[in-house]
Amino acid sequence: MADSRHSAHSPRARQIVGAARELLEKEGADALTMRHLADRIGIKAPSLYKHFRDKAAVEAELTALMLAELAETLEAAEAEAPGSLAALLGAYRAYALEHPNLYRLSTQKPLPRGVLPPGLEDRAAAPLFRHVRMDEHTARAAWAFAHGMVVLELDGRFPDDSDLAAAWRTGADAFSP
After folding, report:
1. Which H or E element spans position 175?
2. Neighbours of 94 (CB within 10 A)
3. Which of 13, 17, 65, 96 lies at a CB distance of 3.0 to 4.6 Å from 7, suitable for a disulfide?
4. In which band, very low, low, confident or very high, does the pLDDT at 123 lie, cut at 50, 70 and 90?
5. pLDDT of 125-139, one tens digit each?
6. Mean pLDDT value across residues 98-104
7. 115, 60 Cβ separation under 8 angstroms
């Protein structure tokens, strides 16, 4: 069967990933089935397996896409406001809130490291690790703060009158040297 790391470069594989993303973003993860995906692009479901061995392979491509976009988002925030953890956290939050279903799909399961493009995970994390001499453990704690805040916000777990901007600033201040 095709390996998603290689087939993702074919026009059909890119079409499949694009349709999967659109389906995911519009209808959520439960709607992302191989049959629904095939219907969306007008092919028979078995044809998908020529490009992706299974749904997990499609999800891995979507995760790689999310990590690449997040890396670009964080790199842009870092370039715009060098050394600002608040800017990085704000960019992270904005990306996750703009793409909630892609974010959830990519962060709620173990990361498929074995099939991600080499260096992609490190690239996505690099802006945080470069932040003002932040050590590895503090950077991971800051990421956990951001991820937790985003998930709670996406899940509607904060009271309506919560000042989330203040909570994000407090978190950024707590992790800044």
Report:
1. helix 164-175
2. 13
3. 13
4. very high
5. 999 888 756 788 888
6. 98
7. yes
Q: What are 61-87's pLDDT values in tens digits? A: 999 999 999 999 999 999 999 989 999
Q: Which two tokens stand for residue 93?
A: 């939050």
Which pLDDT score, from 0 to 100, does residue 84 have? 92
Where residue 163 falls (left for φ over 0; alpha for ψ -120 to 50; beta otherwise) is beta
* Lookup: tokens for 160: 């309506």
What does the DSSP 8-state code read for residue 161? T
CATH topology for 4-175 is Tetracycline Repressor; domain 2 (1.10.357)
Residue showing tokens 């999310």: 66
Q: First vs last Cα of the chain: how many Å apart? A: 50
Question: What value does the CA radius of gyration of the chain take, rounded to a whole number of Å?
Answer: 18
Q: For residue range 12-54, what is the model confidence (pLDDT) as tens digits? A: 999 999 999 999 999 999 999 999 999 999 999 889 999 999 9
Enumerate the domain spans of the chain.
4-175
Count of positions (residues) in the chain: 177
Q: Cα–Cα distance between 151 and 70 in angstroms, integer?
A: 16
Nearest one of 73, 78, 111, 66 to 92, comparing CA atoms: 73
Is residue 87 within 8 Å of residue 81, measured between CB atoms? yes
